[in-house]
């Protein structure tokens, strides 16, 4: 099957700022790929380039095997874009928005009527058929935004932080919706700062820093790169002594802001951890299996602490 998206050695400058610096990525049919990374690392720029909203300076971008440059504006028919900034018309009704975008993408009258009815129904927008979009909650606007992005049945759906601005309930509804799309075979490239969201939705994740991919793989593959099976989040009034003890036990120590995270080589009970740290002024301990958040901290944003460096006591994220 043809690779849906193949990006190789992509470079983008904004003025003198080298925003994408040799970025690469492949998205295969039916995959949900998550692009993660700190603010300003270039996630939206990648999506905007693939969605033909901005140009790039160097590299290869292929959509369904064809160079993006050669496809020109035909590429817009192949992708559906749900950008960070909502592009809906607030004074129109949900179906009017869908009809508008269906016309933009050149659907015939018959196709348009059918597709709008189908999306209104499957996204449960029928309930709000008579509500102007500006009056919808953020969650329902985002639902409509997704429906608009799918109006022309694109081969690739681009979602830029699809749940960033919505409450918990709406976020969970959107997750179910995106899972439904995933399960019906929609190919999706999404960005997120929400690591639990990426862990839940994505079949593969690419982690970025400064315009490059620094780690990629399935969630289990990324979890396997963490030097530990479980993480203990510990508060202590004497972090130096705690660190010293943990290192002497052969545990890996990470400090992010004021939180000390101990990566444990195997699952230990709370009792075993507390006993092992006895005498190190521990005021709170929480233990859980490692998650994508630990992989992210490990692969994108941590400064390793070793026995020789820990005497400095100050460990700051990059
Ligand atoms: N139109 C533009 N003109 C100039 N600089 C831009 C433009 N768009 C983005 N940038 C810069 O490019 C860099 C990457 O921006 P981008 O929006 O791709 O980051 P991001 O990873 O999506 O960040 P966030 O997580 O905050 O959404 C940032 O430093 C940003 O300020
Ligand atoms: Mg962004």
Tell me the overall shape.
globular
Broad structural category: alpha/beta
Bound molecules: adenosine-5'-triphosphate, magnesium ion
Strand order of the largest sheet: 6-7-8-3-9-10
Distance between the first and last residues' Cα: 40 Å
Number of domain units: 2
* Mean pLDDT, all residues: 91
Order of helices and strands: EEEHEEHHEHHHEHEHEEHEHEEHEH
Taking all Cα atoms into account, the compactness measure Rg is 23 Å
The CATH homology group name of the largest domain: P-loop containing nucleotide triphosphate hydrolases
CATH class of the largest domain: Alpha Beta
Could you estimate the helical fraction of the residues in percent?
25-40%
Instruction: Identify the CATH architecture of the largest domain.
Output: 3-Layer(aba) Sandwich
Detail the poorly predicted runs: 303-318
Would you give the CATH topology of the largest domain? Answer: Rossmann fold
Tell me the β content. Answer: 25-35%
Number of helices: 12
Number of strands: 14
Largest sheet: 6 strands, mixed
